[in-house]
Amino acid sequence: MDIWLIFRTIFLIFLIILGIFFFIVFVILRIIRRYHKFPIPSFMTRLIDNPIRRKFIQKPETVAKRMRLEPGMIVVEIGPGKGSYTKALANSVLPDGKVYAIDIQESIINRLKKRLEKENIANIIPKIDDVYNLSFEDESVDRVLMIACLPEIPEPIRALKELKRVLKPDGLISLSEMLPDPDYPRRKTEKKWAEEAGFEVDNQYGNWFVYQLNFKINQKKKK
Known about the structure:
- The protein is α/β, with parallel strands linked by helices.
- The chain is about 45% helix and about 25% strand.
- The chain has a 7-stranded mixed beta sheet with strand order 3-2-1-4-5-7-6, with helices on both faces.
C-alpha cells in the first residue's frame, strides 16, 4: 500500500478529530457564556488578538480607517487586549489626539502599560474604569471602539447608553465581532442593542464571519 496514501489518510483523520474537538469546545463555551457573563481571562486575549487576524482578516489600520478618525480626536477603546488595535487608533489621531484604553481587569491594563513604556507611546492612556459609570464628562469623546467585547458585558444596552452619554453629538461608536469567539453575536443582535440604546447605523462592513458596525446617535431618540 502507498505509504503516502496511509500518511494522508491518517492526517485527514487527525484533522477531522481536531475539528470535532474544537467544535465541541466552542459549543460548550458558548452555552456557558450565554448564562454566565464574565470578562475574558487576560491570557486568552492572545487568541483573539493574533497575527492571523491582524494581517489577513481584520487589519488594525482598516478598523481605524473605517472609524473616520482625525488628528486631535479623543477616542475610547473598551477592552483593548494586547493593544494592537489601540496603537492603530493612536496613530490616526496624532499629533495631539488621545486614546483611552479601558478595561476592568488590572492584569490587562498593567500589561498594556508595560508595552507602551517599552515602545515609548505617549498618547495612549490605559485605565481601569466601569463601563456602566465611565469617568468621562458628558459629550467629551469623539469615537468609541469595542472589539469582541460588548457581548461579554452582562447588560450591553446599559453599557451602550453610558457610552452615548460621553459621546459627542457627531461621534461614532464602532462594534466589531468575529467567529469563532464563543460570545459572537449575530449582526442583527448588536444592531438591536444599539437601537434600543439610542443609536442608529452609520456604516457597516464585513460578512457573517467578521464584521464592523459603526453607529451614530439617533437624534430623534436622544432625549
